[in-house]
């Protein structure tokens, strides 16, 4: 039934509250009386308030008896005109949350020759399971039985493995067909769920040495398609999971690409943009469209456009698992970018079709909130939403063996949920790395409950993208022509000193919770930003300034984060928001990798230095305060003195200078015996002895000196 002709409407908006709306065109100014039919009883409702609102006369009524969830319930007025009581705002009350919280497993369960299908739909009055044979299209229909906590259940034979399935759910007299919110396998373009046990798809696993502390990580952000789609990537499976299984790939000129290149970079973690099933790309014709992947359709199923056979539900699972293990085999940990803050389309998603109104936040007027900017905000603070996210996180670790999560728009989620996620994830992997965007967004959740940077003290062991580091070093993201320190702004020196030392001034971040970066998939790349605000500069100087910015990311206290291709001046041709731009804008340009090979080697050696030198990787502020002094040597030249660091590296003392100007300054050196590790133009292999008692600083870039 798609349309119900109701003379007036009634909604259960509170645990014992019913709202009645009578169209003013049909309203007669008379004494109204309303009765609720509960089983064999007819109960008169108490009218607490009545008033006109827009085109309706509104009555707020109350009753004392228990409402029969799971049954169609009717009421009538004094004239005997009946209407059904629809489940309304009660679904977002604390009482509803407490009454229907279910701790057990949901989704299909494959045990002992049978498949148990379970769906949480406490407001529904009927649920059916629809099966379709994948070849013959034969259909089967099973009626589910309602159990405790609003969970509907059906046991079917394992002979239905590989069949597609959907749920037919009746809420408020209207039937809707939905995929399984917990479904782990889907058909092409995610139109149906598939009865397939991911545990049956086994790939060989490889262990990666445990991370001792978060600051030991060097994160490298990749989009699966961007990684290999370039014509000269030397990779056969372009744009696919399988690209990560190809080793020793190279350009036509013999420069490494793919996995071989990543190994040369020396990073520790590969952060992959979302690869759960998302909208925006036709999986049958992926070459016709592009998307970053922040349009989640199914949170537990993997994306099909990256598969060599999107029509085979098992192939995409196999290839995604193999991708992770290939990265593990070569020594990388894998961070999955996850998007639990919103869905692609609220009205058509499984959440809304199965439990209308529950999974999303609504404003004071009852309309869906839009803090995410995409039309809906996930209500993570509700018990079954929190459970869903936690179950999903556990699933990705168990089945895909990922080593961390990057939470898109984490500030939409609540602190309690994020702490539970961290706790659950740690039971699987003690060195799990969780990071997120802690922006404060306008969603109807109390300020002190949001998982924002301002509440970092309430969230344990979760890192935040340090946007202040980005904007001070690079320049404001929201003012295109604003220049940061690395682009020659000499008025930022004081804040730079704070940022390179762990950012404790910024929302009480610690080195282990500050993710330092100057570019990511979002907004302008550093190169494009530099062209916008310093387009008058020669290319050589722009390169020097970007090398400076990248070195500051790698050598500052905190967790360094690199955007793939940043080391060879990645450009998106000026496009700031390339989420659906074509491949020629988004792809990794392996020709630039050739052109700037020497600059890449410089960055690789800085990464190696960071990994070998624990003084760049202090885990807490106390170590920083004990071993680091920060000053300056003229405008635009930040000087960091490291002392008594022999317990953390082969050196006893070290000086790092970040120079953003060519103004000549002379840096006095305490005592003698200093060697140069690097100057802005090169790394001095084996170290170059400084013969004088000072060092001339007149280049843009990074200087590192040390004493053994």
From TrEMBL:
Q: Which CDD domains match?
A: AmyAc_Pullulanase_LD-like, E_set_Pullulanase
Biological process (GO) annotations held by this record are:
carbohydrate metabolic process
In terms of InterPro entries, this protein maps to:
GH (IPR017853), GH13_cat_dom (IPR006047), Glyco_hydro_13_N (IPR004193), Glyco_hydro_b (IPR013780), Ig-like_fold (IPR013783), Ig_E-set (IPR014756), PulA_N1 (IPR040697), PulA_typeI (IPR011840)
Q: Which residues form the Glycosyl hydrolase family 13 catalytic domain?
A: 246-610
Known SUPFAM superfamilies for this protein? (Trans)glycosidases, E set domains
Any one GO molecular function term: pullulanase activity
Tell me any Pfam family this protein matches: CBM_48
Keyword Zinc among UniProt keywords: no
SMART domains on file: Aamy
EC id: 3.2.1.41
- Keyword field: Glycosidase, Hydrolase
Query: Its family?
Result: Belongs to the glycosyl hydrolase 13 family.
What is the recorded name of this protein?
Type I pullulanase
This chain's source organism reads Metabacillus lacus
Q: What is the lineage of its organism?
A: Bacteria, Bacillati, Bacillota, Bacilli, Bacillales
Gene encoding it? pulA
